[in-house]
Amino acid sequence: AVGEPILEVAGLTKRYGGVVAVDDVGFTVPAGKIMGLIGPNGAGKTTCFNMISGAIAPTAGTVRFLGEEIQGRKPHVGALKGLTRTFQNLQVFASTDVVGNVYMGRYRKGRAGIVRGMLGLQGREQYAHEEIAREVLEAMRLGDVAGSGASDLPFGRQRMMEVCRALASEPALLLLDEPMAGLSGKERDMLAALLRRLRDAGLTIVLVEHDVAQVMSLADTVAVLDDGVLIAHGDPETVRNDPKVIVAYLGTD
Ligand code: ATP
Q1: What pLDDT shows up at residue 108?
Q2: What SS3 class is residue 40?
Q3: What ipTM did this prediction achieve?
Q4: Atom 3 (ligand 1): residue with closest C-alpha?
């Protein structure tokens, strides 16, 4: 239900030798909300995402997703429960078309399809997955390029295609790692409008983003990391005016 915690992070810590990349970070993300995770370069944002999604194991701390602890588990554990992430760098399957790229998002559903395939239902199952991929593209106004080669699309549309792929997995929680990087101002506004629409439809979103202005206008809550430490967490207006945040961004003491 909207407002109930979907993601609860507590004491999350990652050490690399003497470097503490993430230091005792805790926050809760309510269902149906957007949380922005911001901070200067090297603050530990991607490392947090990696621990939440299961790409790396934390040194300490817990990640609770839909009530279940998933820290240190492989990425498919969260994925099967509805946790989907995108990456900072584009992950484009250049040899296939746009709909094929979005179809990849159905992978965890597709595994169930293998069982159905053994029962002789695979053709139908595959068709259904492709239909869903097309529907997502239509809804995101990429229907006209469904048949285009993925690598032929301009960068901004490849980014949108990635969001479509993530949506095709029908996530409960979507982690977006710098989705606006490389987009034009107009494309950023379009993506922000899309994310608001998804949030209003009930999706929970956590985004790491360098465009602080976009995050402040888009997110319901904002968490700020600096040098691995969570220095602020709250509504955008409060966070924006927090002296610690201002210092972190201006780099003065
Ligand atoms: P950016 O905004 O530049 O992407 P970030 O906030 O995502 O930065 P991280 O990439 O999470 O920051 O890095 C946090 C810190 O941890 C940095 O000091 C980085 O050098 C260090 N770090 C990250 N991964 C490793 C690793 N595999 N080995 C050693 N140090 C690492």
Answers
A1: 63
A2: coil
A3: 0.96
A4: 41
